[in-house]
């Protein structure tokens, strides 16, 4: 609006988010910024904590009144802050509660539909917020972003979350914001490349001074940093491309390491993974995921990573076991198939037996639920799960609460015509916050092209209430975004971005050329199976660009491409920190990938070697600065 000096006012605890708040402000101001602009939007942040001085409250309220949106960084520390409470109250009094945008940085924040308020155990909600809202607010969960390398637009996941926040503030579709940002980056890169080419002999300050005559010294310094950064990113992309095409295993590893060290982004982490699992694999020693004597091919499910460990279930000749990767502890489980909850505390058998994994290898059956017809979809906390059940009356969608004192389940019929439907687990998804569930049904009698029915339901105590239904094409996945605000559904060659309550589009569809279901580690990272002549690959939403192809034990057809019927569907393990295909299992965390590559390279790469590998004169530093991107 024309009468607002700032697009947003950031309210936060300086003790909790002293590093995060500046990164958020910078990201919002820089996303989509053209080379002519100083900032893409104006964002107010109290840089010194002076709001604790009551004499300056007037300055704070002036900034609040001049801001269109109020961005609250929610954390337990912010929830205890008197000054954050005053800022919330002033915002509500002058703008209304609908102008509050919540970013979770630490702690828990969940909505209780029955109470129409935040749940009692939400430790990041400020008392001033309770009772203000009647419907669940949109919460942007950035509690994952705690490291310095997380808090940069070079990190694809951080950039995507910033784009979501900016899209809400500008009231524009996410895809429109992302496309504008991509265009701005391309223009800046082209201008920088042209400028550096024409004035290669000049210093960076002189270059910017010549291009932007009349700009003061400080502005020139900002432009200098931007030019140097863009040139560094461009060089990193060139090294990554050279790594992917290299036939020399040492070259593939060295170039991937240097690409990541120059720009620690997910696309360059993909180059590292591709080099270690592919061309460079003959030089590396990949650590074993499982204790000696256990095979990764036997893994049937896994928990999320916890402190570098986690738990997995393995199929054995006599049944199934759960293994704790940090301690080596094991639990024997009767039956062939068991699925771990994200926290690793419960295992659910295909026959419906729920086990609590206790101390000293005790696996205590604590409940029996209807038998599982598909792999279940769990909430982030692991308290609720959803799956398909085949009974005498036909197929049913089951949602079970295994966290309460008494296990409760609710169900809705899916129709007798679904008796022969695919058992694909990706066709059922429960929202991470447990508020909704979605199911995709393609009847067994469907003709080509297949039309599937997509339905969403609200989860409320003892019932499921249908919210909306829509037709989608083909087969494929359905999933909720990490913050539960949107539903993604495959529709032939696109992934639709839908509002869960209406199934109406709320963003531009994401195009993908690969066939088969995608498996997500989180909103910004997915796996695609083998497809024709393409190996299984790691892809990055929303562009769906393939950043790593992974080896797979597949047979070839007469045409020289892969026979997809032989397998090759990859799988994330331990919340995305490991990845597996039928050919092997590899870590995906950047720090571990760098360690593996640098060990294989003997700890260093000479300038002469790098020049030979890429025909670019550059002093390598990759193996001496292992920074990590999330």
Features:
630 residues, alpha+beta, Rossmann fold, Methylamine Dehydrogenase, Chain H, four-stranded antiparallel beta sheet, 13 helices, disordered C terminus, TIR_dom
Structural commentary:
Helices cover 26% and strands 27% of the residues. The chain folds into 3 domains: 6-176, 3-Layer(aba) Sandwich (Rossmann fold), CATH 3.40.50.10140; 182-285 and 594-624, no CATH class; 300-519, YVTN repeat-like/Quinoprotein amine dehydrogenase (Methylamine Dehydrogenase, Chain H), CATH 2.130.10.10. With 630 residues, the chain is of the alpha+beta class. It contains 13 helices and 34 strands. Strand 18 (394-401) and strand 19 form a beta hairpin.
Summary, kept brief:
The chain is of the alpha+beta class and 630 residues long. Pfam families: TIR_2 (PF13676). The chain crosses the membrane at residues 195-217.
Secondary structure elements and pairings:
Blueprint: E1 6-11, H1 14-17, H2 20-30, E2 43-45, H3 57-65, E3 67-74, H4 76-79, H5 82-94, E4 100-104, E5 111-112, E6 117-118, E7 139-141, H6 156-170, H7 174-198, H8 204-211, H9 217-245, H10 249-262, H11 266-277, E8 299-302, E9 311-315, E10 320-324, E11 330-333, E12 338-340, E13 346-349, E14 353-357, E15 363-368, E16 377-378, E17 384-391, E18 394-401, E19 408-415, E20 428-430, E21 436-441, E22 451-460, E23 463-473, E24 478-480, E25 487-491, E26 494-498, E27 505-511, E28 519-522, E29 525-528, E30 537-540, E31 545-549, E32 571-573, E33 578-581, E34 584-587, H12 590-600, H13 607-614
Parallel strand pairs: 1-2, 1-3, 3-4, 4-7
Antiparallel strand pairs: 5-6, 8-9, 9-10, 10-11, 12-13, 13-14, 14-15, 16-17, 17-18, 18-19, 20-21, 21-22, 22-23, 24-25, 25-26, 26-27, 28-29, 29-30, 30-31, 32-33, 33-34
Helix pairs in contact: 3-5, 6-7, 7-9, 8-9, 9-10, 9-11, 10-11, 10-12, 10-13, 11-12
Transmembrane segments: 195-217
InterPro entries: Quino_amine_DH_bsu, TIR_dom, Toll_tir_struct_dom_sf
Keywords: Membrane, Receptor, Transmembrane, Transmembrane helix
């Amino acid at each position: 609006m024309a009468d607002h000096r700032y697009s947003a006012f950031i309210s936060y605890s300086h003790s909790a988010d002293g590093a995060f708040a500046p990164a958020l402000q910078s990201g919002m101001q820089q996303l989509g910024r053209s080379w002519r602009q100083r900032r893409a939007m104006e964002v107010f942040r109290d840089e010194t904590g002076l709001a604790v001085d009551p004499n300056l409250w007037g300055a704070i309220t002036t900034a609040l009144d001049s801001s269109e949106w109020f961005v609250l960084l929610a954390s337990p520390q912010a929830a205890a802050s008197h000054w954050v409470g005053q800022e919330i109250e002033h915002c509500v009094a002058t703008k209304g509660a609908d102008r509050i945008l919540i970013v979770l940085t630490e702690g828990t924040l969940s909505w209780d539909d029955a109470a129409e308020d935040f749940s009692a155990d939400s430790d990041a909600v400020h008392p001033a917020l309770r009772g203000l809202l009647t419907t669940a607010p949109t919460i942007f969960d950035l509690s994952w972003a705690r490291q310095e390398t997380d808090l940069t637009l070079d990190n694809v996941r951080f950039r995507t979350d910033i784009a979501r926040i900016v899209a809400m503030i500008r009231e524009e579709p996410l895809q429109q914001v992302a496309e504008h940002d991509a265009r701005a980056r391309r223009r800046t890169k082209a201008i920088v490349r042209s400028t550096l080419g024409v004035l290669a002999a000049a210093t960076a300050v002189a270059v910017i001074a010549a291009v932007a005559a009349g700009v003061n010294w400080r502005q020139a310094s900002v432009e200098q940093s931007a030019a140097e950064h863009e040139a560094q990113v461009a060089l990193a992309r060139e090294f990554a491309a050279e790594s992917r095409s290299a036939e020399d295993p040492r070259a593939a590893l060295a170039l991937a390491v240097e690409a990541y060290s120059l720009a620690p982004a997910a696309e360059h982490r993909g180059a590292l993974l591709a080099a270690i699992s592919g061309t460079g694999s003959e030089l590396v020693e990949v650590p074993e995921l499982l204790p000696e004597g256990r095979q990764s091919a036997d893994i049937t499910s896994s928990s999320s990573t916890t402190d570098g460990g986690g738990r997995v279930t393995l199929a054995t000749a006599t049944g199934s076991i759960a293994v704790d990767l940090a301690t080596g502890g094991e639990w024997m489980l009767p039956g062939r198939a068991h699925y771990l909850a994200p926290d690793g505390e419960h295992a659910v058998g295909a026959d419906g037996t729920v086990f609590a994994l206790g101390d000293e290898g005790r696996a205590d059956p604590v409940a029996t639920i209807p038998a599982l017809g598909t792999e279940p979809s769990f909430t982030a906390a692991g308290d609720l799960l959803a799956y398909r059940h085949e009974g005498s009356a036909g197929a049913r969608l089951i949602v079970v609460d295994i966290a309460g004192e008494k296990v409760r389940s609710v169900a809705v019929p899916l129709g007798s015509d679904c008796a022969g439907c695919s058992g694909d687990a990706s066709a059922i998804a429960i929202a991470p916050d447990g508020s909704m569930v979605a199911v995709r049904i393609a009847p067994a009698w469907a003709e080509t092209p297949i039309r599937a029915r997509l339905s969403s339901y609200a989860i409320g105590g003892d019932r499921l209430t249908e919210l909306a239904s829509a037709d989608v094409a083909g087969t494929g996945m359905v999933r909720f975004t990490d913050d539960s605000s949107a539903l993604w559904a495959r529709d032939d060659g696109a992934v639709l971005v839908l509002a869960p309550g209406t199934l109406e589009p709320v963003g531009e569809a994401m195009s993908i050329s690969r066939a088969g279901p995608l498996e997500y580690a989180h909103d910004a990272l997915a796996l695609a199976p083998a497809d024709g002549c393409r190996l299984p690959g790691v892809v990055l939403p929303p562009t769906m660009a393939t950043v790593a192809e992974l080896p797979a034990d597949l047979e070839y057809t007469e045409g020289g491409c892969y026979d997809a019927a032989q397998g090759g569907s990859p799988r994330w393990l331990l919340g995305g920190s490991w990845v597996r295909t039928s050919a092997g299992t590899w870590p995906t965390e950047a720090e571990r990938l760098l360690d593996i590559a640098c060990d294989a390279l003997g700890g260093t790469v000479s300038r002469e070697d790098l020049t030979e590998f890429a025909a670019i004169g550059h002093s390598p530093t990759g193996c001496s600065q292992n920074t990590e991107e999330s």
